[in-house]
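To assess whether ligand presence alters the predicted conformation, the chain was also submitted together with nicotinamide-adenine-dinucleotide. Input:
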Amino acid sequence: MDSMLIAGAWSGSSDGGLRPVRNPATGAELAQLAYGGPSEAVAACDAAAAAFGPWSRVGPADRAALLQRTADNLADRADEIGALLAAETGKRRPEGVAEIEFAAAYFRWFAEEARRPHGEMLAGRRPGERQFTISRPAGVAVCLSPWNFPVSIQARKLAPALAAGCTAVSRASEQAPLAVIEMFRCLVDAGVPDGVVNLVLGPAAAQTDAMLTHPAVRVVSFTGSTEVGRALLARAGERVVRPLMELGGDAPFVVLDDADVAAAVDGAMIAKFRNNGQSCIAANRFIVQRRIYDDFCRQLAERVNAMSLGDPLDDPVPDLGPLINQRRVDEVTAIAAEAEAAGARRITAAIAAPSGGSFCAPALYDQVPPDARLARSEAFGPIAGVFPVDSDDDALALANDTEMGLAAYVYTRDVGRAWRFTEELDAGIIGCNNPLPSAAHAPMGGVKQSGLGREGAHAGLEEFRETHYASWAL
Ligand code: NAD
């Protein structure tokens, strides 16, 4: 099957061998894909470098039209690509379809943003002096994405890169490449010129190394774990390639004692279990004030105990699908087992996970020791600890006691407390009484070790542009 797009040509065979893509709900093979190596990465960068000059001179209105057509193609095929995405990742079918629609929303937002004026007239210092800025596309952008939202995250990188006038080389995660390939078909069907977008598959470190040492590459936009992000930052530093890093999370979900507890429980179910718990902005620690602690735990445990697990393509749609692979199940299970061995108490029922796929039962714990991994790291699965606190100060201190800072949530009906937590939570994204803060027009990114830079919104476009300042004496 054609799997890589280089210089406008699809390639279905290469030196990197064939690899299967499996459905995590059943273990069934969905496809055999051809993989490349570093030479495909270099060829893709060469193609993007050759296409850069002509593409950077295409007017914004024409760039916008291409992005709009891509969005239309994605929207037209959302049901079909969304089902494929559900099959390869295990996400529930409606979430798969919603992700394709979200990817289309990024193409639409950046199509519109491409037309906005950019540059600034400055006040000259003396008569006859004219000072101003113009902005130019940065060059070839490398777009590296994970498996958990493989399509919308690639779209969040590609759409602004193309809108800014950059050309791109993308690498999809080997865990979930099929729907990403379809997104590239939507770009090709929309008429993207040869070499403007390129897609490779293959060994992660070797291919990204080849990309980051290519002389035309000026931007690397990566979404994935903090560990890999650190290695890429070091590599990018060698050639002073501009990094945009969207890394790991550890989101606190704070429920203050004036909150609407039922609404907080509804929000917790979404913030924790969307994408089977494998979202970078997933609620990772529930921090709940003592006056409502028992009520919140009881209501949330009841909801978790009633969850159905199954194939995400089934009808009716189950509440929880499988994790991406057995390695993730083993990791999540180990985090839970360590916490239990250290004294944590499971407050949900022992739920049986279906066999035949990489399923993981949901579970909530209290009395989690503060040094347990469940309290200190991203679980990236359907488990979490619940932590009681007495005061607002204690809630803030515990919420911020992490090296991560991607998202944070707070539930309260008091506007003063809402302001305080919004201003004092150390996170790039705050959901106040809102478990779904992401939007194409909103900036997405983290503080501390959760990343550098912002995607989405106008800020997302600027990551792919350079500001040039000019001072004229007339
Ligand atoms: P990962 O870092 O293992 O992989 C991400 C991508 O990098 C994949 O395509 C993978 O093939 C590639 N990769 C792996 N090792 C590499 C190496 N040594 N050199 C170069 N590339 C390499 O992450 P993952 O397991 O795919 O995704 C989960 C992580 O991503 C979680 O930590 C999650 O929080 C984070 N994430 C962050 C965001 C965000 O917007 N901040 C969004 C989604 C996921």
